[in-house]
Amino acid sequence: MFLFNERLMFRALLLVVAGLFLIFMPELVPDDYSILSMTSYFLGVALLIGISFFAKFPPVKRSKKIRNDIEIPPADATVVVSRDYHKDFLEKEELLQFMFDVSTDGLWRFDLASGKVHWSEQSTAICGIGKELGDSFEVLKSSMFESDRKDFLKLLSESLEKNRQFFQEIRIYDREGNTRIILLCGKPQYNEEGRAIRMVGTLADVTAKKQVERNLFYSSFHDALTGAKNRQFFLDRIDEDLVRTGARPDYLFGVILIDLDHFTAINDSFSHLVGDKLLRTIADRVLQSCRQNDIVARVGGDEFGIILRDIQGHGSEGEVQAIVRRLQSEIRRPFLIDGNEILVTAAMAVIFNKDFKDVESLLASADAMLRQAKRVGNGGIQFFASGMREKAMELYKLEMEIRKAIQSQEFILVYQPITDINKNNEVPGFEALVRWNNTERGIVAPADFIPMAEETGLIVPMGEQILRMACYQVKEWVDLGYKNVTVAVNFSARQFSLDNMVSEVQKILLETHLHPRNLKLEITEYTAMAEVEKTIDVMNALADMGLQISIDDFGTGYSSLVYLKRYPIHTLKIDRSFIKDIPENAEDVAIIKMVIAMAKSLNLELIAEGVETLDQVEFLRKEGCHLIQGYYFSKPLAGDKALEYLKNHTHVAAAKLSVLDPVT
Question: Helix 231-247 vs helix 359-376: angle between axes, to the nearest 10 degrees?
């Protein structure tokens, strides 16, 4: 049986035409026809019939060929077709496993009936945990971050309950302990009854993709050279804070612009590579000078911007001024780049958001102020708020004067005697106290310049200068025959934390030819308790040199007796705040008695400072504290006056004085 035959259909069509011709022949022949006249018509019909039966037609060419070589056999009711469903199932299983194995992504299937999970070979390689994933989720879960594990179990449960696909990025630890980010996808499959029977899914390693995304995100908001935030991020955050100001009228933030002076000359003098390293180092110092929530950005070639966020509240003005001073101090501190010492100054403009509603006007004002600061030169500062500006400029001027004073050696020392009331008021030593002999202000008290020196780090060169002057002075007294006289010199926490502190002290002792037994170093209780282990090492090194160490202002901090026992200290000094109200104040009396007892138990020398009255002297003598420092016996004296006082209170001369007679 043929499905279709073009030539047969054509022959049938010719026969139909011949038949139609015979039917309508009477209509075609005229009324006076003859047999002879009809011959041509009969011949035509015969020709059509002959062609239809005997002509051989070529095959018809078609764009889509229909096969004519297939025969469909007739149905045989006696034949029963059997199908091997088990074989079909095995073939499907084999095909599915083959697809599992050849896929570049990891594939998995979770059969709910058996509770088993089937993983493709690629899944194990993608996870990289160094072992097979088994037939469950347990191995994978054990490698997940804990928070991701909880999210995975939740998503898996919700997917089955709500018949929806889930996606999750999980973090796992591979065999080397590195973190991999795996994209896990899954979708449940249901039977005809609407019951979930399995879940199938994929997993892919997207660690590299995520790293690229992080790098792109980082580069979008960070400066490529310095690692600080970039200009766009800086502008966006100012805009955000201005919007916050609209919602919170009391919200105050500040913007600082920093423009390095003569940076082009640095590039030209050294190289652009050195200039780049300098910018990176400056960015690090600026970042360290700011608070944790402040934003530091590089907004130009040699310009940095800072957003001081949320600075409202009590003390905000002082806080901003302190940050500005730290910035100036850190930028002025010499930079060592590739063996080159480079000195840098910078102009600064400080502005607040109070009078601004948009970024453009705020930055325009800040730029104008920065230009003004550049005109001032030498690291000028411009404050938008007039009150703060005057105060900041005053402090800035003070810092500049301190720097000049160090260079000009305007600092002088005065010496306050320490009197032993158990030895006829002999003077075993002095405390060296610094004063500033300013050409315009006269003698300036330490309280007016020491805090600034501490904050800016100028206390380090100042302290070195003070120690050298004190050593030269006591060496002069030693050479005059006062072999055992000592001078105590105060060391700040910043000085004491320097890595080269011990070597610097040793260098000055060698320079001045002073024996270490004639020098005491005084540190505060706070300094002693900071970085305890390092402090103990430094103290031991100093003690090994023969120096005596004294804890100043004792009782005002939080010393631990455990640590005090470990410190190689020689002397404790009772802070003046406990002395001023004795013997009337019972609490102070109790504290002093406790300190005296503790010093005796630890075999430490004890000095009471700030003693000003006879009652205080009598009380201390009675309780067993015999070393007294204070105005009752003497105010601080210049070097020549201190020598005269020393002569009058040594050996025989001291015996002429009553133990309780004050000396003026």
Answer: 120
| Same domain as 171, residue 254 | no
Query: What CA–CA distance (Å, rounded) separates 387 from 362?
Result: 19
Count of other CB atoms within 10 angstroms of residue 360: 11
- Residue after which a domain boundary falls, among 211, 232, 262: 211
DSSP 167-236: EEEEEEE-TTS-EEEEEEEEEEEE-TTS-EEEEEEEEEE-HHHHHHHHHHHHHHHB-TTT-SB-HHHHHH
Gap between the Cα atoms of 346 and 258, Å rounded: 6
Same domain, 526 and 622: yes
Task: Supply the DSSP symbol for 637.
Answer: B
The domain of 111 spans 100-211
The alpha carbon of 429 is separated from its chain's Cα centroid by a whole number of angstroms, namely 49
Structure tokens belonging to residue 274: 């050195």
Count the domains in the chain: 4
- Give 348-364 pLDDT, tens digit per residue: 988 888 777 888 888 87
Q: What's the CA gap between 241 and 354, in Å, rounded? A: 11
- Look-up of token digits 């009228």: 249
- CATH assignment of the domain containing 432: 3.20.20.450
From the CB of residue 485, how many other CB atoms can be counted at a distance below 10 Å?
19
Does 228 lie in the same domain as 162?
no
In this structure, the answer to whether residues 379 and 418 fall within a common structural domain is no
**Tens digit of each residue's pLDDT (9 = 90 or more) over 94-138:** 666 666 666 667 888 888 888 888 888 888 888 888 778 888 888
Does pTM surpass 0.85?
A: no
Q: Is residue 302 part of a domain?
A: yes
Residue 413 has pLDDT above 60, yes or no: yes
Single out the residue of 296, 331, 287 nearest to residue 222, CA to CA.
296
Q: Which residue has the higher pLDDT, 16 or 222?
A: 222
User: Cα–Cα–Cα angle for 396, 398, 399, nearest 5°?
Assistant: 65
DSSP single-letter state for residue 338: T
| 446: in domain | yes
